[in-house]
Amino acid sequence: MSPVLESTARALLRRIAVEQAESRLPSLTAAVVRDGRIAWFGSRGRVEGAAPTETTQYRIGSITKSMVATVVMRLRDEDRLDLLDPIGKHLPGTPVGEVTVAQLLSHTAGLTAEPPGQWWERTPGMPVEELIGLLGPETARHRPGRRFHYSNVGFALLGELVARHRGVNWAQAVRAEVLEPLGMSQTTSRPRAPHATGYAVHPWADVLLPEPEHDALAMAPAGQLWSTPADLARWAAFLAGETAGVLDPATLAEMREPAIVDDGDAWTGGFGLGLQLARAGGRRLAGHSGSMPGFLSTVWADPSDRTGVLFMANATSGASRTLLTELLAILDEHEPRLPAEWEPTPADADLLELTGPWYWGPSAYTLRLLPDRGLSLDLIGGGGRASRFVAQADGTWLGLDGYYAGETLRLVRRADGSPDHLDLNTFVFTRTPYDPAAEVPGGVDGDGWRG
After folding, report:
1. Are 364 and 379 in contact, with CB atoms under 8 Å apart?
2. Partner of 314 for a Cys bridge, out of 196, 328, 363, 395, CB 3.0 to 4.6 A?
């Protein structure tokens, strides 16, 4: 994908210029990623007297959690653990050992948000053994699985889980298994030059206060890493689908699935497995925000069109929560992505005869072909229990999404080999509504349809 048009670049730059000026950020960088590459980069403000560049380091805070979660999912894929395992199976003696790995990843374990002791983000860290020793019954704030409750403590435990399975500390595991394969060579546990200094901006005067930086030790998996716009762009590309062998694409898709929402039925924000989720402007976004003393950052990715967006700033507070979604809106307004060109796809004759209308009782569905002998079953008019299905070696199809995710679709043929009906986990779909000639569990009224 080529860089954005000059008019688009101007609109994007103006948006971050307004943000840096009105939010009083010492410096601000932002980037748009398309098809795995930076399509636009912009910056405002100064770092050590010069405009920040794509290689200027900022602390990325809780974006660290998503990278730790990626290693946890690799362990799952290697059968080293199960997401339903209680954490106590891997960290014996932990006082909250009954909560599961999946609950920790999705912040549904009910654990306290912050560790005991002093404000961990602003004070030197403690070893993990000391942290675990300080945890007690009060660490559990809610019944596990009941609700979303963000927990930095939970990711301290996940970082130790990674360390015990890999035999190295969490940061070494993340570097070897995530950062290096993705080419994120400028992402480090402690800052390296050139890096931005973290500042607090006085609420009523235009003056700065340098913020502390230290090794968080046990709490480091919750927010230790430093990165650059160029490296974070590679992370955005990963979240959008450029997995580079780090994760199976199906595993990454699993991480992006909503495990919990935190703002009601018509959710706009939620959480998957180590990833924050959002819906904005017709997009479904996955990524994470980051906040540590002196620094703010966020990265979002939309895998549907392989687009990502990110920002990094060296201020404790002030950046707008809508900055990135507004940058995406500018991109959509100025350069909406063209749909892929349609072209014919070969289809087997035995599948072509299955296409068209099918009926689940009186409800009319249509069956369409997908690549690789896949099928799509949709209610005519929209809505309903629509699902896509992938072909299996035994001649059945497995549901990929929607109501029938994980369920089996089977074609039942007549004695002469012609299609009779579809059996979808006991539901029968026929070529006519309640076909009296088909086997319909429960029977069909003998008098048939009537006026």
Report:
1. yes
2. 196
Strand partners, 43: 29
State the pTM of this model. Answer: 0.91
- Does residue 409 contact residue 427 with C-beta atoms inside 8 Å? no
Angle at 72 between CA 68 and CA 73, to 5 degrees: 115
- What's the gap between Cα 370 and its chain centre? 25
Q: What would the mean pLDDT of 288-301 be, rounded to a whole number?
A: 97
Helix (H) or strand (E) holding 100: none
293 preceded by a cis bond (ω within 30 of 0): no
Give me the torsion for CA of 374, 377, 378, 380, rounded to 10°.
120
Q: Is residue 58 within 8 Å of 195, Cβ to Cβ?
A: yes
pLDDT in tens, 396-421: 999 998 899 999 999 999 999 999 99
Average pLDDT rounded to a whole number, residues 180-184: 98
Tokens standing for 18? 């307004």
Residue 196 gets the label, from left (phi > 0), alpha (psi -120 to 50) or beta, of beta
d(CA 141, CA 112): 6
218 Cβ partners below 8 Å, 6+ apart?
A: 115, 125, 126, 127, 128, 130, 131, 132, 156, 159, 160
Cα–Cα distance, 387 to 379 (Å, whole number): 10
Read off the amino acid at residue 80: R
Tens digits of residue pLDDT in 98-133: 999 999 999 999 999 999 988 899 889 999 999 998
Backbone φ and ψ for 284, nearest 5 degrees, come out as -110, 115
Q: Considering only the top CATH level, what class is 6-334?
A: alpha beta
